[in-house]
Amino acid sequence: MKKILLIVLLFFLIFGPLDAYKAEGSIGLPPLIPMKAFFRNPEKVAFQLSPNGKYLAFMGPWKDRMNVYVQRIGERKATRITNATKRDIAGYFWANNHRIAFVQDKGGDENFRLYAVDIDGKDLKDLTPFRGVRVEIIDRLEDNDREMIIGMNRRCRRIFDAYRIDINTGNMKMIAKNPGDIDGWLTDNKGRLRIAVTSDGTKSRILYRDRESDKFRVILTRDFRDTVDPLFFSFDNKYIYLSSNIGRDKCAIVEYDPHKNRELKTIYENPQVDVYNLLRSKKRKVITGVTYTTDRLHYYFFDKKRKDLQDYLEQRLPGYEVVVTGMNKNEDKVLVRTFSDKSMGAYYYYDMKANRFRKLIDVSPWLKERYMADMRPIKYMSVDGLTIHGYLTLPKGIEAKDLPLVVNPHGGPWARDVWGFDPEVQFLANRGYAVLQMNFRGSTGYGKKFWEAGFKQWGRKMQDDITYGVKYLIHKGIVDPKRVGIYGASYGGYAALAGLAFTPDLYACGIDYVGVSNIFLLLKTIPPYWELDRQVLYQMIGDPVRDKRLLREISPLFHVDRIKAPLFIAQGANDPRVNKAESDQMVAALRKRGIPVIYMVKDNEGHGFHNEENRFDFYRTMEKFLHRYLGGRVYK
Length: 636
Hints:
The strands form eight sheets. Strands 28-29-31-30-32-33-34-35 form an eight-stranded mixed β-sheet, with helices on both faces. Strands 1-2-3-4 form a four-stranded antiparallel β-sheet, with no helix packed on it. Strands 5-6-7-8 form a four-stranded antiparallel β-sheet, with no helix packed on it. By secondary structure, the chain is an alpha+beta fold. The protein folds into four domains: 2-32, no CATH class; 42-124, Uncharacterised protein PF15525, DUF4652 (Lipocalin, Beta Barrel); 125-362, TolB, C-terminal domain (Neuraminidase, 6 Propeller); 373-526 and 543-549 and 561-630, Alpha/Beta hydrolase fold, catalytic domain (Rossmann fold, 3-Layer(aba) Sandwich). Residues 1-21 have low confidence and may be disordered. 42% of the residues are buried. It is built from twelve helices and 35 strands.
């Protein structure tokens, strides 16, 4: 009897409760993990320290929606200070030591309003109660307890004027009127609005002024193909730090003199990838380092104190990527987050002055790392010999041979995949699928030439980069050529539709999640605040008049007759980026031809499903759909 009890105890220690994981050891895979474990709301996430270091704020669920909580450091009780029940709080930050600001949209329309509330939950104020208006944060004004600077398209939906707003009353004053071509603002270290970035189609200019009373003057003009991103001012407010690729292929961090209109020096550049991020200590007024991403996140430090902190944290937390996510104003209390490919990680609090280090919470303790799969960097050659970097995740516990594959191209498309925990990828790997993610040409981070190689290549060489990744895995014997599916969101959804239309013999099924099907309609229905970039989109994707033939050739809607694999299409009714009409048209055309298609529309969502119950519905349907057509496991 004792032996039986011991065996039962060991089973629970290894596999967890029977109602949580279902063991299927006969085929070598880890136990099946419930879908909801991957996509449920975390208990606590997005920790932030108050400026004085006395309080922690975080987000956690209440009535299935993510809300903001505040907790005094050293105490166990936390106070919920927001009351969202229809839509998650989209983001928040400390406005001062006693008040928190947050943003929220309605039904996924991305017209974010700005709110503020005291840390005891009192005096909630809708600071921008304007219908159909979107707020952007320009400067939180860390040294000003009463005000912040925001951008708002209240006067004209296409452009954002700059306002100084009182965080207690909502009283505001326009401090810079957008003449019609400004698509970004930047303040100096004293909160003075001194830089504006303009766009007039395919040219961009950086405007500068010494004082807010001065008129802006042009200090730099660039073609849209060149990246010049103002990061922040030097501590004496004389120079500007930029991420720039002017005169080079990869973005580097440079110091720029706005009076002489020239680069003074290169702070850091990397021969492999773009460098976008510069680290600093505001208290000590020191540039401390940079981060950049090759296959993984990397640091390069200029400052010994910051390097010593990183070294200490990585020694305390071996085996994880370790990121300092915040400090108090005095920079002696630190928030730390860990990451890996098999874990959502944990938050830690480090009081450097008192030398106290403690874990705050594991983000997803219900997901056991020993059951998660490795996410491995890979590279392969595309149709024209271009090297494509990506990640391959293989199901754990079985031989990497003749596996079903889910191809997962990223959205954007001007973005990139990175190494780290991806709940979709781990969910699919747990069901027995290999997952391929690739940074096809046009992805960012690999330099100007690689990005430009994607211009007007939707459905063409960009799609070839995806196709050749599949062929590479088939050639290696890793993937069963008869069990390949493709799934993506946004541009990834377009790539899924394009894969089924333009390489119909390659895929057994496809999933399009808020994806583009008709590029003419995409360009016609862009949000008004994207209007300044319309000509850039024409250059990168195609002009609906001059390139009419091209856009028709690469829009999957007009090639439904070539699609023969079943589809699952999901769409948010309020999507401001990919209009619901695109999915409606695609579904109608597929059904007219008798192609099996599941169509899921959520009336309270936009560009992606954010409400927990909608995520559950989507991934539950995905699991069954892939099981039917690719043969992976399904949790019953």
